[in-house]
């Protein structure tokens, strides 16, 4: 669970919707620091072989099923989601992936809805 804007957000709710996407093989969602909201969601997505998606297309899909507050603000595509031999998510390794990405790019692209058109824009914050 992470807290964004004073609301408790449970990653499993987001993951349950995300895994239904036809191009998604596996996924996990974690809370990451945000200067405005405290924490926001970041989704790590493993795509099925031969599939190509963009962060915007994933967010557009999630927007059909989730309120804005539950939509991850960051999407990262990975080769595989770290799990142990029985399939349990290795959260420490997922956090290490996030930390490594932040070292490489301290200002990642944040996906936020635009107010006028209802579409999404990528802002470099």
**Which strand-content bin applies to the residues?**
25-35%
- Global morphology: globular
Radius of gyration from the alpha-carbon trace, in angstroms: 14 Å
Output mean pLDDT: 89
- In total, the number of strands is 7
- Strand order, main sheet: write it out: 3-4-5
Q: Which structural category fits the helices and strands?
A: alpha+beta
Fraction of residues in H or I helices: 10-25%
Query: Helical segment tally?
Result: 3
Kindly describe this structure.
The chain has helices at residues 11-18, 55-63, 91-104, and strands at 2-4, 7-9, 24-34, 38-47, 74-77, 109-113, 120-124. With 125 residues, it is of the alpha+beta class. The protein has three helices and seven strands; from the N terminus they run ββαββαβαββ. The longest helix has 14 residues, at 91-104. The strands form three sheets. Strands 3-4-5 form a three-stranded mixed β-sheet, with helices on both faces. Strands 1-2 form a two-stranded antiparallel ribbon. The model is unreliable at 114-121 (pLDDT under 50). The two termini are 24 Å apart. Helices cover 25% and strands 33% of the residues.
Helices and strands in order, then pairings?
Blueprint: E1 2-4, E2 7-9, H1 11-18, E3 24-34, E4 38-47, H2 55-63, E5 74-77, H3 91-104, E6 109-113, E7 120-124
Parallel strand pairs: 4-5
Antiparallel strand pairs: 1-2, 3-4, 6-7
């Amino acid at each position: 669970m992470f807290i964004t804007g004073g609301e408790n957000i449970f990653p499993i709710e987001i993951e349950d919707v995300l895994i239904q996407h036809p191009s998604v093989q596996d996924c996990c969602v974690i809370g990451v620091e945000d200067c405005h909201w405290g924490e926001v969601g970041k989704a790590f997505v493993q795509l099925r072989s031969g599939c190509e998606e963009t962060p915007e297309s994933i967010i557009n899909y999630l927007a059909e099923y989730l309120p804005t507050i539950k939509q991850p603000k960051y999407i990262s595509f990975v080769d595989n989601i770290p799990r142990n031999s029985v399939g349990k998510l290795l959260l420490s390794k997922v956090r290490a992936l996030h930390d490594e990405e932040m070292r490489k790019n301290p200002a990642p692209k944040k996906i936020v809805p635009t107010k006028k058109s209802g579409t999404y824009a990528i802002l470099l914050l």
